[in-house]
C-alpha cells in the first residue's frame, strides 16, 4: 500500500489506463475488462484490475490536473512497478480541423509548468509520447475509422483561464487541444524509463464554444478505451 493507493503488492498490472474521472475508471473496467476487481478506493479515486484478451490491466483514476496525476503516476511506477501508462481523457479542441468527438493523440505536451518543473530549472524539457504506443494507437484508430489528429497538445494548469492570450498562442502554433495532465505523465514516465501516451477525445471546443452532451461523451470514451488497450498490447 502507498499513501494514496490501497492495492496490495501484485494487485496493480504493468499496464495502467488512467482516466481523470474515477467513475470513468469503474465504467471502463466493468465494460472492457474480464473479471474486474476493485483494488483501490482511497479518497474515492477508484482503481480496478482485470484482464483484456488475457493481458492484465489496471484502470486507475488520476484526478484532475498535473499535481493529482503526478501522485498516482509516481506511486504506480515507483511502488507497484507499472511500466506502460496511458491517459484516456478529454480535451478542448484548438484548431478548426479538430472536431467534437475526434480523437487527439498527443505526440508532445507543452505547458507553463509541471510538478516536474523544479528538477529541470532553466531547461525547457520537452515531454513526448512513447513512439511504439503512439504508432500502435494511430494504427488502432485508423482500423476503427475514428477521425484522429496526432500532434502537440497543451497541458494547462487552469480550466477557467484568465489568460486567453496563451490559448491564442497555442492555437497559432498548431496545438491541437488543451487538457490538464499529459505533460506531467510524460515527464514522470520518461524519468523512470516507462512508456506513456495520452489518447483524448474532443469534448468541447475553444474556437466554437460547442460541447458534447454526456451521452456523446460516453460513446467517444468507449472508442478511446479500446484504442488505448489495442495500443498497449500491439
Ligand atoms: N480546458 C482544459 N482542460 C480540458 C478542456 C478545456 O477546455 N476540455 C477538456 N479538458
Automatic annotation (TrEMBL):
Gene Ontology BP terms: purine nucleoside catabolic process
Complex and partners: Homohexamer; trimer of homodimers.
Molecular functions per Gene Ontology: purine-nucleoside phosphorylase activity; uridine phosphorylase activity
CDD domains for this protein: PNP_EcPNPI-like
Protein's organism: Jhaorihella thermophila
Binding-site list for phosphate: 20, 24, 43, 87-90
Enzyme Commission no: 2.4.2.1
Name of the protein in its database record: Purine nucleoside phosphorylase DeoD-type
InterPro entries documented for this protein: DeoD-type, Nucleoside_phosphorylase_CS, Nucleoside_phosphorylase_d, Nucleoside_phosphorylase_sf
Keyword terms: Glycosyltransferase, Transferase
Site positions (Important for catalytic activity): 217
Record-stated family: Belongs to the PNP/UDP phosphorylase family.
GO-annotated cellular components: cytosol
Catalytic activity: a purine D-ribonucleoside + phosphate = a purine nucleobase + alpha-D-ribose 1-phosphate; uridine + phosphate = alpha-D-ribose 1-phosphate + uracil; a purine 2'-deoxy-D-ribonucleoside + phosphate = a purine nucleobase + 2-deoxy-alpha-D-ribose 1-phosphate
UniProt cross-references to Pfam families, sorted A to Z: PNP_UDP_1
Residues that bind a purine D-ribonucleoside: 4, 179-181, 203-204
Active site (record annotation): 204 (proton donor)
Entry function: Catalyzes the reversible phosphorolytic breakdown of the N-glycosidic bond in the beta-(deoxy)ribonucleoside molecules, with the formation of the corresponding free purine bases and pentose-1-phosphate.
PANTHER family xref list: FI09636P-RELATED (PTHR43691:SF11), URIDINE PHOSPHORYLASE (PTHR43691)
Superkingdom: Bacteria
Ribonucleoprotein in keyword set: no
Domain (Nucleoside phosphorylase) ranges: 16-215
Amino acid at each position: 500500500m502507498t499513501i494514496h493507493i490501497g492495492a496490495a503488492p501484485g494487485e496493480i498490472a504493468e499496464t495502467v489506463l488512467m482516466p481523470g474521472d474515477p467513475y470513468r475508471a469503474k465504467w471502463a473496467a466493468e465494460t472492457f475488462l474480464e473479471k474486474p476487481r476493485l483494488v483501490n478506493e482511497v479518497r474515492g479515486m477508484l482503481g480496478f484490475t482485470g484482464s483484456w484478451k488475457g493481458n492484465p490491466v489496471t484502470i486507475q483514476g488520476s484526478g484532475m490536473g498535473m499535481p493529482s496525476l503526478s501522485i498516482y503516476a509516481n506511486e504506480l511506477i515507483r511502488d507497484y512497478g507499472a511500466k506502460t501508462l496511458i491517459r484516456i481523457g478529454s480535451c478542448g479542441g484548438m484548431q478548426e480541423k479538430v472536431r467534437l468527438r475526434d480523437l487527439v493523440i498527443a505526440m508532445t505536451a507543452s505547458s507553463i509548468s509541471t510538478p516536474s518543473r523544479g528538477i529541470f530549472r532553466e531547461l525547457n524539457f520537452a515531454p513526448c509520447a512513447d513512439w511504439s504506443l503512439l504508432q500502435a494507437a494511430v494504427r488502432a484508430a485508423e482500423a476503427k475509422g475514428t477521425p484522429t489528429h496526432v500532434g502537440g497538445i497543451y497541458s494547462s494548469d487552469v480550466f477557467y483561464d484568465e489568460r486567453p492570450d496563451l490559448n491564442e498562442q497555442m492555437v497559432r502554433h498548431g496545438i491541437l487541444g488543451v487538457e490538464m495532465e499529459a505533460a506531467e505523465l510524460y515527464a514522470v514516465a520518461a524519468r523512470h524509463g516507462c512508456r506513456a501516451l495520452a489518447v483524448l477525445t474532443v469534448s468541447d471546443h475553444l474556437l466554437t464554444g460547442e460541447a458534447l452532451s454526456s451521452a456523446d461523451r460516453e460513446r467517444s470514451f468507449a472508442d478511446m478505451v479500446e484504442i488505448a488497450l489495442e495500443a498497449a498490447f500491439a
